[in-house]
Amino acid sequence: MINCQNPPIDRLIVFGRYPVPGRSKTRLIPAFGPAWAADLQRQLTEKIVATAEAFALQRGVNVEVCFEGGSEQKMRRWLGPDVSLSRQTPGDLGTRMYAAFLAAFQRGCRRAVLIGTDIPELRVDHLRQAFDALSENDLVIGPSRDGGYWLIGLNRPVRLFEGIKWGTRAVFAQTLALANGQGLRVKELDYLTDIDTEEELKELLPDWTEKGPYVSVIIPALNEALNIEKTISSARNRDAEVIVVDGGSGDDTVAQAIRAGARIEKSSRGRAVQQNRGASVARGSVLLFLHADTHLPHGYINHIFEALMDPGTVAGAFRFKTDLDHPLMKLIELATNIRSRYLKLPYGDQGLFFRRTVFEGVGGFPEVSIAEDLFLMHRISKQGRIGIAPVHAVTSGRRWQTRGLLRTTLLNQVIVAGCCLGISPRVLSRLYQMPGTSAKPGFFNRI
Predict the structure, then answer these.
(1) How many angstroms separate the CA atoms of 189 and 353, rounded?
(2) CATH fold of 10-208, please?
(3) Kind plus residue range of the DSSP H or E element containing 151
C-alpha cells in the first residue's frame, strides 16, 4: 500500500470488523444463523477491499482498513500481509469515524473518504466521484436508503459526528443539518443500499437467501444404534444440517437418527461411498465428515469458521482424543496430534472438514477399501494448508479395547506409512484380514 507522506495524497478508509459468528450482521442471525451471517460479512468485506484496491491502482490513493475485533495478525492472515491496517478507537460510531479522519489528516492527507463493508452495489466509479467532488466541496456523502449513509468524505477535519442518533433513520438528515450549520459545501452521491436486514439481502443478493446452512455434517453409519443419537446431538447447531448416510443397518440406527433430528440418506455399504453420497446431497458451503462414534466439541462451528478465515486453508480437523482413560492412550493421543499437526494427515475420526469447492475439486473421497481419509488428505494437502482446530473431537476407544492398544496403534502407523509411500489400499486392507485384527460391525474401513 502507498503511505501518506510527502507529497500529500488521498486516503480511502475501509471501515469494518473482523467477522465472528454471533457478532457480525446480527440482524440477519435469526433468519440465517450466526456463522452464515458472519460468512456473508466476510465475503462482502473482501469484495469491498478488492474494489478499493482496484481504485487505488488507478488513482494512487492510500487504502487503509480500519478495523475492530480480531487482531492485526488475524486481519493480515485474512486480507493479506501487505494490507495497511489501523485499529478503530474506543467509543461510539461517530467517535471512531472522526478519529479515523483525524489520523488521516494528521498524516498529511489532503482528502479522505470513508466507506463501510456491506455495500454490494459499490463500484470504482462511485469512489472516483467521491474524491473528485472533494476538489470543489468540503463534504461528500452517499446516502443509503435506510436513512444513513454508505460513504462520507472530507478535505479537512470537521466535527460532523457528535449528537447523531446512530442506527436510526435520522443519521443522514442530522449529518446534513450539522454540515449546513457550519456552512459546508456538500455534494450528495447516489442512493445505495447497505445490507443489514433480510429484506435488503433479498433485494440485492437474492441468491444468498437460497443458500443452505454454513456447514453440512455428514455421518456414515452401519449398525450404530448405540452411538448415533449422542453423535447427532453433538452436531446439532443453528448453522448446520446433519445428514446420516446409512449403509444398510440391521439394527435401530435409522430410527434413532430420525428421532435425533437427522436427515437420512441411503447408500450402498462402504464409508467412502457413503460419505460421497452425503456430500452429493449436502447444501452447506463447508462439509464436515464425522464418524458415528465421534462427538464434536462445544462451539465447533466457530472453530471451523476461524480456521477457514485463512484463505489458504482448504481443509481441517479437530484434535484427537478418545474416551479411554489409560496412560498409554494419552501417549497415543499426544503422538497422533503431533503427527496431525506436522504431517497434515489427520484421521477421519478427528472430524474432517473441507471447503465444498475444494472437496469437489479433488473428486471427493477415493472409493477404496481402507484409509480413504488418509488418501484424501494426502491429496488435498497439495491444494493448500490443513488447519487443526485447538479443541478435541472425542471418539470411542472401542476398537483399541477390542484389538488392544499396542496392536491397534501399530496397525494404524503401518497404514499411515503405507499411505505416504503410495502402497495400494487393496494391499493395506489385507492387514485387517489377518488373524486377530477383525473388527466388530460398524468398524468398516476404519483405522
Answers:
(1) 44
(2) Spore Coat Polysaccharide Biosynthesis Protein SpsA; Chain A (3.90.550)
(3) strand 149-154
The reported pTM is 0.89
Beta strands in 313-435 (DSSP E): 313-322, 352-355, 385-395
Contact 94, 329 (CB under 8 A): no
CATH architecture of 215-433: Alpha-Beta Complex (3.90)
Q: Fill in the amino acid letter for 79.
A: L
- The DSSP H or E segment spanning 36 is helix 34-59
Task: Decide: residue 90, CB within 10 A, 0-12 exposed, 13-18 middle, 19+ buried.
Answer: exposed
Euclidean distance between CA atoms 274 and 290, whole angstroms: 12
User: Cα(8)–Cα(105) distance, rounded to whole angstroms?
Assistant: 9
Q: Is the dihedral of CA 294, 300, 304, 306 positive or negative?
A: negative
The per-residue pLDDT for range 291-305, each reduced to its tens digit, is 999 999 999 999 999
Task: Tally Cβ neighbours within 10 Å of residue 58.
Answer: 10
- The model's pLDDT over 184-217, given as tens digits with 9 standing for 90+, comes to 999 999 999 999 999 999 999 998 888 899 999 9
Q: Which three cell numbers stand for residue 196?
A: 443489514
Residue 307 scores a pLDDT above 60: yes
How many CB atoms are closer than 10 A to CB 115? Answer: 25
Chain position carrying cell 433480510: 198
